[in-house]
C-alpha cells in the first residue's frame, strides 16, 4: 500500500480501477507549507472491507480524507469523512487500522501535520471516540505501528517505539498494546481517553551468555486457529543487518498483561515493579447503580499511571524459529499445510532485495533454520523491498505487492520436481511422490494415500550434489563376444553412457551395465552331483538330498537351459525304528461326588503309557454339587403352662414356650437356634377356662393372704377403661388398672389386697390373608390365521388366595392382544369404523377381491367386524348427577344392595386435571344383580360433581338400562343399583 497513489484496484475476473487524486488547490496548499510535489499527492494508506463496502483513506496532499465505496462499483462513493486520526498526513509514516464486526474503526497513526502526536484512536460505530493520552511519551514514544487485530474482548496493537524505561541511551523495543473494545473512557479524569490501555515488551533474541536481541518489529501474522502470532524482528538500521522470526502464543501475551506493572514515581526515580490491582482483567464494567456506571472496573487513577507491564512476553521457543545474517526481512505470511504425517507451518518471508524465502516453522531441532527455497520476483539485476504479502486460500495463491506491480505465485508447484528423488529431497510440505501416478503431486491430487509418500525429516541441501544417471541406450550393432573358454561368438551389442545427468559436486557415478549383448546364445550344462546330505530324521524313515547346477556352462544370451532334475531325494533310516512316545492316556470318568449338596469334590485319573515321566498330574479334582442343601426344621415340645400376671382374685395369664432348630443338612454342625415362640392365654378366676395352673395359683393366693396385711381404711378405687388390644388379630390381650387409696387419701399399691392390673384376651379371630396373583399362563392360539385375530392369557388369585377377610387381587385376570393382523389373501382393505348403534357397537366391512372364476375361495374370515364403543361414544349412556348428599346419607346405602367396586380397578389421567376410574363390578354382599353377571362402567371425578358413564357388554341380558349411583363412604366406593332415581353422595 505504501507507494500506491491516485488509484484503487480490484483484482478478480473483471478488474476494476478508479482514479482518486487530490485536487489542484489541495496540492498547492500542501506545497506552500514546504512539502515537495511528490509528497503532495494522494497516497492510499487505509484499505478495509466492511460487509459490501470498501473503506479507504488517503493522505490527500497532507489533508487526510476517507471515503466509503461500493465493492461492486469502486467509482460509487457512499460516504466521505475527515481522515484525521484515521490516516497519516505523511505517506512515509507507519500506520495500521481495522474495522470490527460492529463497524468501529481502530486506527494507529499520527494525528498532526508534523507527525509529533501519535495516537491509537477509535471512531465510527456506536462507541464514543477514544484516544491515547496526548503528548505523553510514557504512553507512546516515537512509535512505528505495525498491525492491529481484533481478538475476543480486546484490540491488540503491535508496534516498536523508543523505550522510555531504558536508562542507558536510546533503545528501541517491540511492543504489544491492547485496549478493551467496551472502553467508554473516563469521567472527569481521562475523559475521551482510553482507561484500559496497557502495553508489554516482546522478546525475540538469540540465547547465550550475552543474548543477542532483535529489537525492531517489522511485520506480524496472526493464526486464529492456534492463537499464534508470528513476527519479523530485525536489528536497528545503524547496526549490522540481521533478521529473525519469532512466534508468540496469545496465552503468553495474556500472562504478561496479568502480571505486575512497571511504574516510575517521578523522572528522578527508577522504574519499579508494582502489583496489578486486577490481575485477571477481562474488561468487566461497573454496575449501573454504582458511581460511574458503564465504566470499566479499572480505577481511573490506576489507568492514568499504570499501563507498562513489568513482565516481558516470551516466544514459544528459546531461540528464534528462523534467523538470517546480513539480510533484512520486511513482510511475513504463514500457511498451514496438511502433510503426510502432520500439519506444517510454511512461512513466506519478503526481503529488502525483492526475494521471497520459503521456510518451515517447527520446534524440531533438526529442522531449525529450515529454508525450503528462495523465489526471485524481480527481473535479473533489479532489487526492491517486498511491500506486502497476502495468501488467497480459495485460489491457493500468494500475492506479492511491489513498488510498481502485483505478482501472483501459486503456493503448490509440485510439477517442478520431475523425478521421485527431486520431489522427496525438496522437503516441500505441499508435495509428495505418488507411486501409482509416477509423479510429484499434492496430497489432494494423490490417487491413494497409501501410495503417496513424503519425507520431511531434514532440511533440503543447498548447492546439491548431483549423482550421475544413465542416458538412453544406443542402437544395436554387430559385435564379437568372448565366451571365456577360448571361443568367440558373433552377437549384437548396444551401449549407454553416464550422462543423464553427469555426476558432479562429489556425486555418485552410475551403477549398472553399460553394454548389453544379444543373439549369441550358449546352451547350459549340468555340474556333477553333490554328495548326499544328512538324513532328515534321526530315527524312523526320513529322506536325504543331493543337488547339481546348470552352470557347466551356464546358458547365455538365449541358449537352452539344462534338461533334467537339479535335485534328487532318497529314503534313509528305514531299519531304525523310533522308541514309542511317552504319553498320557485319556482321562477316566469323574468319580462320585463327596457330598450330595452344599459343595463337594470329585476326581478322575489317567495313566502314563510307555514310561513314567509324563509331565503333569495323574489325578484331577473339581468341585461338584455346589447348590445349597435344603433347610430342615425341628420344633421342641411345648413347655408346661406357667402362670403370669396373677391377680389377687386368682385371674391370670398362662404362657408356654417352644424353640425351633434349623440346619442346612447333611452337615449337622450347622444347626442354629431359632427364635422362641410364646403362647399366652387368659384364665379367669371362676374356673370356667381350660387352665392347668389352678393348683399353683391357689398356693400363691394362700401364701399371699398369709403374708399380706392390709392397713385399716385402705380401699381400691374404680377400674379404669380397658386399653387397646396388643394385637389386631390372632389373640392379643388388653389391660385395665385401679389405684389403692389409704385413709389419708394417698395412693399406696401395697396397702390393698389384690392386683392393681387386670388382663383379658381380645381379638382372637385369625389374621386376614391378602390374595396375590399367580403367574400369567401361556398365550392361547390365535383365533384367526390372517385378517386380525386375538389371543389371550389368564391368571388366578391363588398365590395365595384371600382368606379371613383379606383383600382380593387388584387387576385383570385376563389379557387379550391382537395377532395375525396382516390382511388375508383376496380381501380388500377394511372401511373406517362406523358410528355407534343403539346396541353400543361399531361396525366396519371389507370386500372380497378374488377372481370369481377361481374354484376355491381365497377369502377366509368374516365380511363384517364389530367392537364395543368407547364409553364416551355410546349414545344415551352418559349421565351427570351433582353431589347433593352428606356423608351420613351416603353411608346408609352400605347395606345388602351395595356392591364392592374395588375389584379389577384401573385409574388413568385425562388431558385435563380430572381422573378416570374404570371398574368391573361383582357381588360382594347379599345384594342381587338379577340377570346381570357384571357391570362395566367409568367414573370421572371433577371437583364438585360426579360423572357416571355406563358401558354395555354381552353380560347385559336385559334390554333396559340399569341406573346406578356411585356412593363414596370413607375410603370405600359403593354402587347403588335401582330403577328409579339417580342420586349421588360424595365425601
TrEMBL record:
Q: Which GO terms describe its molecular function?
A: chemorepellent activity; semaphorin receptor binding
Concerning PANTHER family, the annotation shows:
SEMAPHORIN, SEMAPHORIN-5B
Please list every transmembrane segment annotated in the UniProt record, as residue ranges: none
Q: Would you say which domain of life the source belongs to?
A: Eukaryota
The primary location reported for this protein is membrane
Compartments where found: Membrane; Secreted
Domain Sema: where? 1-411
Pfam families registered for this protein in UniProt:
PSI, Sema, TSP1_2, TSP_1
Protein name from the UniProt record: Semaphorin-2A
**Membrane topology field:** Single-pass membrane protein
- The scientific name of the source species is Astatotilapia calliptera (Eastern happy)
- Which Gene3D superfamilies does the entry link to? ligand-binding face of the semaphorins, domain 2, Thrombospondin type-1 (TSP1) repeat, YVTN repeat-like/Quinoprotein amine dehydrogenase
An example Gene Ontology biological process? neural crest cell migration
Keyword Mitochondrion in the entry? The reply is: no
Keywords of the record, alphabetical order, are:
Developmental protein, Differentiation, Disulfide bond, Glycoprotein, Membrane, Neurogenesis, Repeat, Secreted, Signal, Transmembrane, Transmembrane helix
- Gene Ontology CC, one term: plasma membrane
Entry keyword annotation includes Oxidoreductase: no
Amino acid at each position: 500500500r505504501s507507494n500506491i497513489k491516485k488509484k484503487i484496484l480490484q483484482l478478480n475476473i473483471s478488474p476494476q480501477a478508479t482514479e482518486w487524486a487530490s485536487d489542484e488547490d489541495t496540492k498547492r496548499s500542501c506545497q506552500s507549507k514546504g512539502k515537495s510535489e511528490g509528497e503532495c499527492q494522494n497516497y492510499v494508506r487505509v484499505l478495509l472491507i466492511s460487509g459490501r463496502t470498501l473503506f479507504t483513506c488517503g493522505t490527500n496532499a497532507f489533508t487526510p480524507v476517507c471515503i466509503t465505496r461500493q465493492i461492486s462499483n469502486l467509482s460509487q462513493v457512499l460516504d466521505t469523512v475527515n481522515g484525521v486520526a484515521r490516516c497519516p498526513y505523511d505517506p512515509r509514516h507507519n500506520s495500521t487500522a481495522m474495522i470490527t464486526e460492529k463497524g468501529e474503526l481502530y486506527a494507529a497513526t499520527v494525528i498532526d501535520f508534523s507527525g509529533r502526536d501519535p495516537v491509537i484512536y477509535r471512531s465510527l460505530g456506536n462507541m464514543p471516540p477514544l484516544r491515547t493520552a496526548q503528548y505523553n511519551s510514557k504512553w507512546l514514544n516515537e512509535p512505528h505501528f505495525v498491525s492491529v487485530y481484533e481478538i475476543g474482548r480486546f484490540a491488540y496493537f503491535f508496534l516498536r517505539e523508543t523505550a522510555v524505561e531504558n536508562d542507558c541511551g536510546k533503545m528501541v523495543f517491540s511492543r504489544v498494546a491492547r485496549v478493551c473494545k467496551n472502553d467508554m473512557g473516563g469521567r472527569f479524569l481521562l475523559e475521551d481517553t482510553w482507561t484500559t490501555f496497557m502495553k508489554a515488551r516482546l522478546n525475540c533474541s538469540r540465547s547465550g551468555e550475552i543474548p543477542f536481541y532483535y529489537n525492531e518489529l517489522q511485520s506480524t501474522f496472526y493464526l486464529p486457529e492456534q492463537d499464534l502470532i508470528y513476527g519479523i524482528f530485525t536489528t536497528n538500521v545503524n547496526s549490522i543487518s540481521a533478521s529473525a522470526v519469532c512466534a508468540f502464543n496469545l496465552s503468553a501475551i495474556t500472562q504478561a498483561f496479568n502480571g505486575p506493572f512497571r511504574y516510575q514515581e517521578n523522572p528522578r526515580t527508577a522504574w519499579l515493579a508494582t502489583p496489578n490491582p486486577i490481575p485477571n482483567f477481562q474488561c468487566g464494567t461497573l454496575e449501573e447503580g454504582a458511581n460511574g456506571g458503564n465504566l470499566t472496573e479499572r480505577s481511573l487513577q490506576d489507568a492514568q499511571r499504570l499501563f507498562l507491564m513489568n513482565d516481558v512476553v516470551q516466544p514459544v521457543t528459546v531461540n528464534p524459529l528462523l534467523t538470517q545474517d546480513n539480510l533484512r526481512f520486511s513482510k511475513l505470511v504463514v500457511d498451514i499445510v496438511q502433510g503426510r504425517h502432520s500439519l506444517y507451518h510454511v512461512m513466506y518471508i519478503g526481503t529488502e532485495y525483492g526475494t521471497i524465502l520459503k521456510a518451515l516453522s517447527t520446534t524440531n531441532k533438526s529442522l531449525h533454520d529450515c529454508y525450503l527455497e528462495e523465489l526471485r520476483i524481480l527481473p535479473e539485476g533489479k532489487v526492491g523491498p517486498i511491500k506486502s504479502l497476502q495468501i488467497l486460500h480459495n485460489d491457493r495463491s500468494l500475492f506479492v505487492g511491489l513498488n510498481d506491480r502485483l505478482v501472483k505465485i501459486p503456493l503448490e508447484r509440485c510439477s517442478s520436481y520431475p523425478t521421485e528423488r527431486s520431489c522427496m529431497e525438496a522437503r516441500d510440505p505441499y508435495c509428495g511422490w505418488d507411486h501409482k501416478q509416477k509423479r510429484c503431486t499434492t496430497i489432494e491430487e494423490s490417487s491413494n494415500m497409501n501410495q503417496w509418500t513424503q519425507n520431511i525429516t531434514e532440511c533440503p541441501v543447498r548447492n546439491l550434489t548431483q549423482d550421475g544417471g544413465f542416458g538412453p541406450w544406443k542402437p544395436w550393432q554387430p559385435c564379437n563376444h568372448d565366451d571365456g573358454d577360448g571361443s568367440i561368438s558373433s552377437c549384437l551389442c548396444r551401449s549407454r553412457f553416464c550422462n543423464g545427468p553427469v555426476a558432479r559436486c562429489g556425486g555418485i557415478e552410475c551403477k549398472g551395465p553399460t553394454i548389453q549383448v544379444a543373439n549369441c546364445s550358449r546352451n547350459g550344462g549340468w555340474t556333477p552331483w553333490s554328495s548326499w546330505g544328512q538324513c532328515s530324521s534321526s530315527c524312523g524313515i526320513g529322506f536325504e538330498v543331493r543337488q547339481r547346477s546348470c552352470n557347466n556352462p551356464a546358458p547365455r544370451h538365449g541358449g537352452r537351459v539344462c534338461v533334467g532334475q537339479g535335485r534328487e531325494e532318497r529314503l534313509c533310516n528305514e531299519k531304525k525304528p523310533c522308541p514309542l512316545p511317552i504319553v498320557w492316556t485319556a482321562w477316566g470318568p469323574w468319580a462320585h461326588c463327596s457330598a450330595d449338596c452344599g459343595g463337594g469334590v470329585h476326581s478322575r485319573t489317567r495313566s502314563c503309557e510307555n514310561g513314567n515321566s509324563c509331565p503333569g498330574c495323574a489325578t484331577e479334582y473339581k468341585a461338584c454339587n455346589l447348590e445349597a442343601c435344603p433347610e430342615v426344621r425341628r420344633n421342641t415340645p411345648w413347655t408346661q403352662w406357667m402362670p403370669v400376671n396373677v391377680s389377687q382374685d386368682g385371674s391370670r395369664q398362662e404362657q408356654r414356650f417352644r424353640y425351633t432348630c434349623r440346619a442346612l443338612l447333611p452337615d449337622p454342625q450347622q444347626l442354629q437356634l431359632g427364635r422362641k415362640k410364646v403362647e399366652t392365654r387368659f384364665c379367669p378366676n371362676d374356673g370356667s377356662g381350660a387352665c392347668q395352673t389352678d393348683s399353683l395359683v391357689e398356693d400363691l393366693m394362700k401364701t399371699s393372704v398369709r403374708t399380706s396385711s392390709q392397713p385399716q381404711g385402705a380401699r381400691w378405687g374404680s377400674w379404669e377403661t380397658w386399653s387397646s388390644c396388643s394385637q389386631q388379630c390372632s389373640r392379643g390381650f388388653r389391660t385395665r388398672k385401679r389405684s389403692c387409696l389409704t385413709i389419708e387419701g394417698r395412693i399406696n399399691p401395697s396397702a390393698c389386697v389384690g392386683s392393681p392390673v387386670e388382663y383379658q384376651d381380645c381379638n382372637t379371630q385369625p389374621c386376614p390373608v391378602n390374595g396375590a396373583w399367580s403367574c400369567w399362563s401361556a398365550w392361547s392360539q390365535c383365533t384367526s390365521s390372517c385378517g386380525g385375530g386375538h389371543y389371550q392369557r389368564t391368571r388366578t388369585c391363588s398365590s395365595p388366595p384371600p382368606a379371613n377377610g383379606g383383600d382380593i387381587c387388584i387387576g385383570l385376570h385376563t389379557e387379550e392382544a391382537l395377532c395375525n393382523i396382516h390382511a388375508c389373501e383376496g380381501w380388500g382393505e377394511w372401511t373406517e369404523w362406523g358410528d355407534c348403534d343403539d346396541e353400543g357397537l361399531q361396525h366396519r366391512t371389507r370386500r372380497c377381491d378374488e377372481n370369481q372364476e377361481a374354484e376355491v375361495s381365497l377369502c377366509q374370515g368374516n365380511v363384517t367386524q364389530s367392537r364395543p364403543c368407547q364409553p364416551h361414544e355410546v349414545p344415551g349412556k352418559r349421565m351427570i348427577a351433582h353431589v347433593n348428599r352428606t356423608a351420613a346419607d351416603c353411608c346408609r346405602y352400605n347395606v345388602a344392595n351395595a356392591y364392592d367396586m374395588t375389584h379389577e380397578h384401573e385409574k388413568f389421567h385425562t388431558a385435563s386435571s380430572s381422573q378416570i376410574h374404570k371398574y368391573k363390578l361383582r357381588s360382594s354382599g347379599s345384594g342381587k344383580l338379577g340377570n346381570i353377571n357384571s357391570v362395566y362402567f367409568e367414573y370421572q371425578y371433577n371437583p364438585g360433581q360426579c360423572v357416571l358413564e355406563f358401558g354395555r357388554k354381552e353380560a347385559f341380558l336385559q334390554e333396559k338400562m340399569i341406573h346406578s349411583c356411585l356412593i363414596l363412604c370413607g375410603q370405600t366406593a359403593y354402587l347403588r343399583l335401582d330403577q328409579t332415581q339417580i342420586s349421588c353422595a360424595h365425601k
